[in-house]
Amino acid sequence: MRYTYRFRLDPTPEQRELLDQHRDTCRQLYNHALTEFEKIPESAGTLTQRVRQVRDQLTDLKVWWDELNDLYSTVAQAAVMRIEDSIKALSQLKQNGYNVGSLNWKAPKDFRSFTYIQSGFEFDSKNGQTVLSLSKLADVLLIKHRTIPDTETIKQVTIKKEPTGNWFASFVVDGKETPEKPTDPDRCVGIDVGILKYAHDTDGYAIESPDFSDERERLERAQRDLSRKEHGSTNWETQRQTVAEHHADLKRKRRDFLHKLSNYYATEYDLVAVEDLDVKGLVELPKNSRNRVGAAWGTFLGMLEYKCEREGTHFVAVNPRGTTKECASCGVKTEKPLWMREHSCPACGFEADRDANAAWNILSRGLEEVGVGYSESTPVETALPVDTPVSAKRVVETGSPTLKERTASAVSE
Question: Which of 29, 34, 143, 359 is 20 to 30 A from 264 in CA distance terms?
Fold first, then answer.
């Protein structure tokens, strides 16, 4: 399994300037390679073959382009091969229903990273501190907050500059052992995501959506201040930096919540069933689209999927159609307007929270897909604790029992 470790870099002012020079040289090389690629007819070969034709011109380019000699060989090659990755990404977006155009030249603000592949980098220690030694560049101080196991092989390192001006290094490793998934999963859970409650599961817990209203207000205020500055002026650049920092703060807090929640479900259960949501379609629906975007369901489900794979947990995405209307106890469908938050079946009398009922249906469909049997009476027997709320602040590291504390504990915060 491939996995990525991300570390923050702490370069000196001189190193920051050198990193920016390397990044800009890669950008110019990418733009030149894109021009050359567009000259090659599609009949000349596959996408990979045509991009490699451009990559093979690097040796001749170095004769008259002195800056290319300052780049490590794999860094220059990766800059050219990025064309292939970009075209494949556009094709995938088009298949998913997005309107996409063609590749264009990259402006300095749009090209933020360069990559070392296989070689040209290594960890080192200087004055008791860990540094990342980059060939033809510098030994940059690295904030190594965790270790990469010796059993995992580093395939590539991507050096990236964020809009805030901070630099990060992402290490792609291979060889990470993946546990076998249990053939007879015992601990199973179904999860229904929403807005009022971020997640409602079949264990009877409702995870409250995190409140980022203060962060959004600070961001909007900073954006208004930015709009009043003269574009390109010193004050404008200073305020742009402030806006970028507020964006990063909001993104960091949201992803922290999503990481902890997805990690909990992936490590505590043998099988996790969720809805196979059309997130793009939901966001495009009229009304409340801002909250749907802020919920980041697609990001959460993506995190949950790869973490389940990492932990050896079954991840099942089921068809969401009818999960809210269908009774989890008897299967009879009942129409429910959005404002109706309780499920009450007219056929069997089963009553539960609307989202809890949907979570049971999601779990039932997930078990069917995996081929595991389940008790038909389970929803009725476990319907009592479905109103147990858990604040987003209570979602902590894996294994902590605080996720399952009852209402009194949650309210007493």
Answer: 143
Residue 291 identity: N
Which helix or strand (DSSP H or E) is residue 153 part of?
strand 153-161
Phi, psi of 175 (to 5 degrees): 100, 5
Q: How far apart are the first and last CA of the chain?
A: 40
Burial class (CB in 10 A: 0-12, 13-18, 19+), 401: exposed
Residue 158: other Cβ atoms inside 10 A: 18
| pLDDT tens string 76-87 | 999 999 999 999
Rounded Cα distance, 411 and 413, in Å: 6
Structural tokens at position 243: 């806006």
- CA angle, 335 as apex, 329 and 341 as ends, to 5°? 75
- pTM for the structure as a whole: 0.77
149 secondary structure, DSSP code: P
**Distance from chain centroid for Cα 383:** 33
Structure tokens at 13: 């002012």
- pLDDT tens sequence across 335-348: 776 777 777 777 78
Residues of the chain with pLDDT under 50: 375-413
User: What SS3 class is residue 196?
Assistant: coil
The enclosing H or E element of 66 equals none
